[in-house]
């Protein structure tokens, strides 16, 4: 759908690449970590999404003729352009499983590749993972509040341009059951659904005829929009007339949609009118600037709404514009690397690393991940990343290893997982997270600590760098 060839990047990746190439360092091995620093939506968790999209892109990543012709105009050297012509991503990637819950400070993805390859894929990796993780997290927050009601993505028209395409994918991972986005349905294999716009009703002289024609044309999938003129005096009575006519033809009206006014009041009144007419099977759907807070509020008001249609707040991640995920070098030319910062929380963690999730004896999440050196089998202690007074013994706590190889020599190790599989897995993981991390207000802080060996290595490198400036 979108052409993700070589120029879909920040140009500094390519300019740095030329320097490595000219210095003969193209084959030097590097390790980068993808992680984020802050949970969006003041929430207690994030849902990792976008991995399969990234793997699709990386398996096929190359510079097209058009890319190379453009780069010729950007003052790159001819030999380097020849190198880019043959460029393939041949690296290895370790990752948390797509759909899993992830937390600030712990590596979510580790890229091991030669320095040029690892650098060139940075932008696309961040672009895909940051956005889909943000939207899958938002969708999951709505899924939790909807308590089993159906969620439909209506967002394409309100999305930030092409972002709507991947927003629909991420929404499905988060627990949406359908989308109005036909292209996303085509490409990702999930349910596409549609009701009708106000323009359709407006185009008729009377609402009833508009409803009748639609029902005749789409008898298996008729959801009537009832608020164009007057929901209770016109929309619902006309929907009941059409529902009855459909019954006489052996068909069933699927639903009605409320799109303005007091949705709780109107849903209650509509439900009663439909039930009294014997149309208790007709579903009530609601839309109009909804988000997780309004879904909660409507259900707290006991609004009998079966389906929520959500656009803007879902696909834009409102009110958080982006996930702040970053990609940092942790190992290069056989040496651990660190990035220093005035802010201690921003000092990066050196070395190839692994992440362990702490579990209770039933396999539920305890509420902490430990980042350690790759190869540490069972970290014994977990330290707060920068508060020396906070640590705990974790040697006897059951753990699971989160970073698993997913790509080797540029090719997937396992079969591509379907969205349905990823979404189901995500719900399994969500069920393992204690409720205090899922509440809206002041959720419990999920801890991400570091092992003793990793802490010592980081501190040693900080000292080493500091000495240079004494
Ligand atoms: N019972 C309710 N409790 C809380 N929020 C509600 C309730 N009913 C509707 N809302 C929300 O309140 C907002 C109302 O929006 P708005 O002021 O634009 O009214 P409207 O009904 O869309 O008006 P208009 O008739 O001009 O389209 C929407 O976000 C809607 O989802
Ligand atoms: O969560 P939201 O961003 O509100 O997205 C959903 C809205 O989009 C549509 O309205 P629109 O006015 O675009 O079209 P319409 O004429 O069909 O109502 C729909 O009727 C919802 O109100
Ligand atoms: O199918 C719908 O009802 C729909 C689709 C997109 C936006 N609003 C509504």
UniProtKB/TrEMBL annotation:
CDD domains per the UniProt record, alphabetical: NAPRTase_A
Signal peptide residues on this chain, from the entry's feature table: none
Nicotinate phosphoribosyltransferase C-terminal domain residues: 352-456
Segments forming domain Nicotinate phosphoribosyltransferase N-terminal: 9-130
Stored SUPFAM superfamilies: Nicotinate/Quinolinate PRTase C-terminal domain-like (SSF51690), Nicotinate/Quinolinate PRTase N-terminal domain-like (SSF54675)
Keyword terms of this UniProt record: Glycosyltransferase, Ligase, Phosphoprotein, Pyridine nucleotide biosynthesis, Transferase
Pfam families: NAPRTase, NAPRTase_C, NAPRTase_N
Domain of life: Bacteria
Pathway the protein contributes to: Cofactor biosynthesis; NAD(+) biosynthesis; nicotinate D-ribonucleotide from nicotinate: step 1/1
One GO MF term: nicotinate phosphoribosyltransferase activity
GO biological process: NAD+ biosynthetic process via the salvage pathway
Keyword Transferase in record: yes
EC number(s) per entry: 6.3.4.21
GO cellular component terms attached to this protein's record: cytosol
Reaction(s) catalysed by this chain's protein: 5-phospho-alpha-D-ribose 1-diphosphate + nicotinate + ATP + H2O = nicotinate beta-D-ribonucleotide + ADP + phosphate + diphosphate
PTM comment text: Transiently phosphorylated on a His residue during the reaction cycle. Phosphorylation strongly increases the affinity for substrates and increases the rate of nicotinate D-ribonucleotide production. Dephosphorylation regenerates the low-affinity form of the enzyme, leading to product release.
Domain Nicotinate/nicotinamide phosphoribosyltransferase: 150-317
Entry-linked PANTHER family: NICOTINATE PHOSPHORIBOSYLTRANSFERASE (PTHR11098:SF1)
Protein function: Catalyzes the first step in the biosynthesis of NAD from nicotinic acid, the ATP-dependent synthesis of beta-nicotinate D-ribonucleotide from nicotinate and 5-phospho-D-ribose 1-phosphate.
Entry's family note: Belongs to the NAPRTase family.
Protein name stated in the entry: Nicotinate phosphoribosyltransferase
Organism: Salinimicrobium sediminis
């Amino acid at each position: 759908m979108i052409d993700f060839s070589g120029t879909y990047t920040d140009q500094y990746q390519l300019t740095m690449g030329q320097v490595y190439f000219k210095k003969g360092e193209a084959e030097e091995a590097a390790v980068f970590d993808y992680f984020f620093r802050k949970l969006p939506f003041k929430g207690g968790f994030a849902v990792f999404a976008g991995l399969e999209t990234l793997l699709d892109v990386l398996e096929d990543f190359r510079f097209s003729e058009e890319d190379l012709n453009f780069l010729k105009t950007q003052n790159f050297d001819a030999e380097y352009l020849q190198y880019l012509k043959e460029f393939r991503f041949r690296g290895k990637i370790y990752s948390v499983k797509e759909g899993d819950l992830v937390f600030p400070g712990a590596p979510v993805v580790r890229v091991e590749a030669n320095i040029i390859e690892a650098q060139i894929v940075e932008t696309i990796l961040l672009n895909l993972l940051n956005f889909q993780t943000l939207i899958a997290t938002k969708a999951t927050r709505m899924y939790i509040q909807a308590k089993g009601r159906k969620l439909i993505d209506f967002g394409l028209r309100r999305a930030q341009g092409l972002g709507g395409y991947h927003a629909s994918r991420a929404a499905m991972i988060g627990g949406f059951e359908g989308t109005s986005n036909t292209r996303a349905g085509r490409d990702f294999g999930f349910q596409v659904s549609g009701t009708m716009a106000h323009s359709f009703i407006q185009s008729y002289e009377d609402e009833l005829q508009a409803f009748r024609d639609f029902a005749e044309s789409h008898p298996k999938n008729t959801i009537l929009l009832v608020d164009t003129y007057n929901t209770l005096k016109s929309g619902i009575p006309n929907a009941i007339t059409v529902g009855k006519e459909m019954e006489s033809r052996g068909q069933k009206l699927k639903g009605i949609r409320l799109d303005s006014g007091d949705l709780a009041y109107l849903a209650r009144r509509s439900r009663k009118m439909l039930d009294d007419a014997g149309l208790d099977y007709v579903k009530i759907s609601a839309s109009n600037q909804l988000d997780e807070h309004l879904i909660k509020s409507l259900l707290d008001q006991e609004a009998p709404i079966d389906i929520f249609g959500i656009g803007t707040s879902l696909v834009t991640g409102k009110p958080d514009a982006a996930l702040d995920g970053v990609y940092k070098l942790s190992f290069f030319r056989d040496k651990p690397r660190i990035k220093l910062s005035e802010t201690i929380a921003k000092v990066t963690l050196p070395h190839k690393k692994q992440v362990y999730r702490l579990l209770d004896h039933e396999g539920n999440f305890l509420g902490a991940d430990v980042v350690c050196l790759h190869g540490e089998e069972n970290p014994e202690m977990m330290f707060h990343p920068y508060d020396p007074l906070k640590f705990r013994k974790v040697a006897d706590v059951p753990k699971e290893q989160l970073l698993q190889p997913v790509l080797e020599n540029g090719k997937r190790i396992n079969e591509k997982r379907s969205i349905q599989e990823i979404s189901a897995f995500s719900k399994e993981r969500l069920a393992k997270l204690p409720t205090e991390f899922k509440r809206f207000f002041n959720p419990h802080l999920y801890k991400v600590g570091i092992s003793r060996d990793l802490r010592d290595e980081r501190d040693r490198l900080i000292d080493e760098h500091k000495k240079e400036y004494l």
